[in-house]
């Protein structure tokens, strides 16, 4: 009896005879020298929006943090457990990444939950509800708009939440200080699962635009 699902073991065999075989030197170098990625990606847990696949990244190129809704909470050194803040601290202070990209995506279940205030919690703990309350003010504003369709409200909040997370990133002293010195850049992006389109946030206007592809 296997201790892992068969499809995972099959995938691992393909990895060892494929990608690992061609990049084994890189993996050995990473094991010996450690990681030094220049970019951190804050992405959603959604299995359809994997940053390493979207950006065709090799081993050691991206430091990826994934959570429900690709959210960053505000700085809160209160003694509680903060996994997202811990990963951010490590990326900025230890790895010294040069870029942080908050990447949302279309058809996000977390965003849908934030908009659907009438839905029952998935469990008594209501962990998703509590987590998505980080964007409650924006969700309430978007939900009240009767001029948008349900899908338009969803896309609007997916993109607004990215701006929220970038604003929260700047509440962390280590981020705001390094950004002010020009040693760290913050970026926003939104990925459309159905079309594969990537939209990038304009730093000056906050609008999401399609990048020019050479």
TrEMBL record:
Cofactor binding, note field: Binds 1 zinc ion per subunit.
Catalytic activity: hydrogencarbonate + H(+) = CO2 + H2O
One example GO MF annotation: carbonate dehydratase activity
Keywords for the protein's UniProt record, in alphabetical order: Lyase, Metal-binding, Zinc
Domain of life: Bacteria
Gene Ontology process terms (BP): carbon utilization
Listed EC numbers: 4.2.1.1
Name this polypeptide is given: Carbonic anhydrase
Source organism: Mesorhizobium kowhaii
């Amino acid at each position: 009896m296997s201790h892992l699902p068969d499809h995972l073991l099959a995938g691992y065999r393909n990895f060892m005879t494929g990608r690992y075989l061609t990049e084994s030197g890189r993996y050995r170098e990473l094991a010996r020298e450690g990681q030094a990625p220049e970019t951190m990606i804050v992405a959603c847990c959604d299995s359809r929006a994997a940053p390493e696949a979207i950006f065709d990244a090799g081993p050691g190129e991206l430091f990826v943090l994934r959570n429900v809704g690709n959210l960053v909470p505000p700085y809160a050194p209160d003694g509680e457990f903060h996994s997202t803040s811990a990963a951010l601290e490590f990326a900025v202070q230890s790895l010294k990444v040069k870029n942080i990209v908050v990447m949302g995506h279309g058809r996000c279940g977390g965003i849908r939950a934030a908009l659907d205030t009438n839905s029952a919690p998935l469990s008594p703990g209501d962990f998703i509800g509590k987590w998505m309350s980080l964007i409650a003010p924006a969700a309430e504003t978007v939900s009240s708009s009767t001029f948008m369709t349900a899908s338009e409200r969803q896309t609007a909040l997916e993109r607004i939440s990215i701006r929220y997370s970038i604003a929260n990133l700047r509440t962390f002293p280590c981020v705001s200080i390094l950004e002010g010195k020009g040693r760290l850049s913050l970026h926003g992006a939104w990925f459309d699962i159905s079309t594969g389109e990537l939209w990038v946030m304009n730093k000056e206007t906050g609008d999401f635009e399609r990048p020019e592809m050479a």
